[in-house]
Structures are given as structure tokens and as C-alpha cells.
Amino acid sequence: xxxxxxxxxxxxxxxxxxxxxxxxxxxxxxxxxxxxxxxxxxxxxxxxxxxxxxxxxxxxxxxxxxxxxxxxxxxxxxxxxxxxxxxxxxxxxxxxxxxxxxxxxxxxxxxxxxxxxxxxxxxxxxxxxxxxxxxxxxxxxxxxxxxxxxxxxxxxxxxxxxxxxxxxxxxxxxxxxxxxxxxxxxxxxxxxxxxxxxxxxxxxxxxxxxxxxxxxxxxxxxx
Length: 223
Fold this sequence. Notes:
Strand order of the largest sheet: 6-5-4-3-2-1-13
Helix content: 10-25%
Number of domains: 1
Order of helices and strands: EEEHEHEHEEEEEEHEHE
Oligomer: single chain
Number of strands: 13
Strand content: 15-25%
Radius of gyration: 16 Å
Largest sheet: 7 strands, mixed
CATH class: Alpha Beta
CATH superfamily: Ribonuclease Z/Hydroxyacylglutathione hydrolase-like
């Protein structure tokens, strides 16, 4: 399994079955050249929730039309973005059968709340994560979430660490450790409002006793 990081919380997973799965392609630091050079031949798109930094509607529509991509996301996302090309509706607890021993488990995710959400419809009432399982490796994309009790296990984890509507770095380190992940990738730091304090993160992860890798945008790793 190969995983490549893109801005904010986006990852491109290339499975042993030869499938290319794009998770949460968002608007932050998006450029058309990414669509032309990187987000190509996409078989599947998974979207966790309705915020635009996870759901770039224009880019997703172009990919679906160009590649015949299968799109999976929540009912709330389709309702919030009526212009989004309709795909499959998924919910927490589902297991998406992608064929040839490839599946995506739809996990719980608990989006943090802040006062700016008050009085508008921007708070995601429906938020999920995904564990992509190719029969060899399991890659967990948590979505924007605070910590919660779970028994999820994985080899790779993409998790937010900024502490703004998500876990902070110390909690994230504990959360990642509990999954047993060998490869831990902190994300959700390209938005200047929701930045990552890398100095604090480094200390917190060392205190918890787990190692992480900081992936740059466009950087990939074989898991």
C-alpha cells in the first residue's frame, strides 16, 4: 500500500489491487495542476464530512466525470452540496465492498464544536472516518475528530493534531498509539487558522512514546 499526502487531511491510497482511492480532497492549497498531475485515474473517492477543506466539490465533479470514479459520502454532504454529483450514501458502521478483498470500513468520528458554529448550518451533524483495508494493510483516516472510546486497529493513521475542533497533539499521540499504527501521520495543519505547533507536537509524541512522520504535500510512503 502506498499513501501520498495532500493539503489538510487529504490522502491518496494506492492498494495492492491496483486501486487508487482519494480521501477528502479539499479546497485548501488546491491548484488545477494537482487535478491534472496527481489526482488522476482515481477509482474511488471517500469524503468524511461537509466542510470544504475535506470536500472540494468542483474538483470531485471533474474527477468523477473524467474517470468514472465511484463517490462515497454521507447523506448530509449530498444535501449540503446539491451540485455535487450523486454517488453512494454511506453511514457509520457500514462496510463498503470495493471488490477483490478490498473494503472500506466507515468509522465513528466526533467533530469538535466551537462558538463560530452557533446559529448556522456549518457544524457537521454527520461525520465519519474510513479504514481502508486491502487484505494486507489497514489505513485509517479519522476525519476531524476529538478522541472517543473505540477498538479500531490499523497499520497507518492520518489524524488531525491541531487542537481546533480536533484532538491536540498529546491526545492524538495517545489515540494513535491505541490503534497500534506503525505509520502515524499528523494532518490538518495547512489552514493558517488551524495550524500545527510542530515543536509542541514533537514533545508530546515523545512523551507518549510513539514516533510520527511529517509528510510534505505530495510526499508518499510505502506502508
